[in-house]
Amino acid sequence: MSQVLSEKKLVGSMERVSNVPDADMVEMYQLMTRYYDGMQLDRFEKDFREKDYIILLKESSNHDIIGFSTFQMINKNIDGIAHSVLFSGDTIVDENFWGQLELPRIWLEFVVSYQQENPQVQLYWFLICKGYKTYRFLPTYFYDFYPCYKNPELRAEKKVLDTFAKIKFGDDYNPQTNIIHYRHQKDRLKPGIADIDSGRLRNPHVRYFSKKNPNWSRGDELACIVKIEPKNFKSFVHKLIKK
């Protein structure tokens, strides 16, 4: 990476989606089209406006939008217990800024704050993965999550996942495989963005993702769930939140 790129920094903020101007939304769509084939502006806007929050990432010197991640809070009682999931929608970061920790830092601070303000609620992160890079967020930041090769049968997490995936995706979600196969949506990662070669397959998490979601390159997504609680965070996560 060149010296110029290495000096680029991003700054992020958590915003209400309802406060995001249309011009910014179009800029985000254009960023998505650099990494995904089959994107459609009307479908992107509909999905975008359904979300509650967005982490907006901008380049520090010129304030260009170089990344974002949208979220929707969904609530439901399961067996008489209040559950909330923070569902992650579209997420993308310009490749020149990959590896910077502003996005996970803001997200983690948000979920910790929400948990502290709502201690009576079981809080989960509901993540859908088109590619292995998204799936790798789970073992990087958390000890336990579902589905995972280390814990193939986490029954409580499986029940939560099936419940909320059905709410969000209906018959497009298959509870037997945890795969979301869209009947109408056709966007998918561009070739070369998250290809899985023999070297990548040496990682057990990547190998498991590839086996669980064999049609990822066609746009299928693996539905995943992780419980948000301090003991489930990797040790470095606590340090990241405090910074």
Structure description:
- The chain has about 240 residues and is of the alpha+beta class.
- It has one domain (about 70-240).
- About 35% of the residues lie in helices and about 25% in strands.
- The chain has helices spanning about 5, 20-35, 40-50, 100-115, 130-135, 135-140, 155-170, 205-210, 235-240, and strands at about 10-15, 35, 55-60, 65-80, 80-95, 120-130, 175, 180, 190, 220-225.
- An eight-stranded mixed sheet has the order 1-3-4-5-6-10-8-7, with helices on both faces.
- A hairpin with a 5-residue loop joins β3 (about 55-60) and β4.
- The radius of gyration is 18 Å and the shape is globular.
Topology summary:
Elements lengths: L2 H4 L3 E7 L5 H12 L2 E2 L3 H10 L2 E7 L5 E14 L2 E13 L8 H16 L4 E8 L2 H4 L1 H5 L13 H15 L3 E2 L4 E2 L7 E2 L14 H9 L8 E7 L7 H8 L1
Short structural summary:
With 243 residues, this protein is of the alpha+beta class.
Percentage of residues in strands: 25-35%
Which sheet architecture does the biggest sheet show? 8 strands, mixed
* Series of secondary-structure elements, N-terminal to C-terminal: HEHEHEEEHEHHHEEEHEH
Residues in helices, as a percent range:
25-40%
Number of domains: 1
> Structural class per helix/strand content?
alpha+beta
Uncertain residue segments:
1-6
Give the N-terminus to C-terminus distance in angstroms.
26 Å
Number of helices: 9
| Shape, principal axes of CA atoms | globular
Radius of gyration: 18 Å
- Strand line-up in the sheet with most strands: 1-3-4-5-6-10-8-7
Total DSSP E strands: 10
Mean pLDDT equals 91
